[in-house]
Amino acid sequence: MTDRSRVLFVCTGNSCRSQMAEGWLRHLADDRYQVFSAGSHPSRVHPLAIQVMEEAGIDIRSHTSDFVDDYLDKKIDIVITVCDAAREVCPVFPGKAQRIHWSIDDPFTGWSANPADLPRYRKTRDELRTKIETWLHLC
């Protein structure tokens, strides 16, 4: 058993924003937290999310897209929703889980790995890094 706080990032599809946030927090916080991500309607990790995170030196290829309810019994300490829709449907976690909300634009426009969409994914990646760095400095 570990005494590290458990952080769960939640978005709708668990394909882009929450996956990138999970990758960033794992990378930037070393072993300070146990980090997970999930969605209200999970799908799969988007190939462009994987690509732009690789550009930043972070490998999220092994991440899975999970259903948020699967974490209700995992003793989550901090739930960070990264989209407005997920905030509305995010379940209440048992205990005293802290809830944080960041409204991050969704880069998703479809499942194709269209290079024209890369700027949107990079913008989301960079915004999440800034949010996580700021949050870490406040903790």
Describe this structure in words.
This protein is α/β, with parallel strands linked by helices and 139 residues long. It has one domain: Response regulator (Rossmann fold), CATH 3.40.50.2300. 35% of the residues lie in helices and 16% in strands. The protein has four helices and four strands, in the order βαβαβαβα. The chain has helices at residues 17-28, 47-55, 84-89, 118-138, and strands at residues 5-11, 33-39, 78-81, 98-101. It has a four-stranded parallel beta sheet. α1 crosses α4 and α2 crosses α4 (118-138). The longest helix has 21 residues, at 118-138. It is globular, with a radius of gyration of 14 Å.
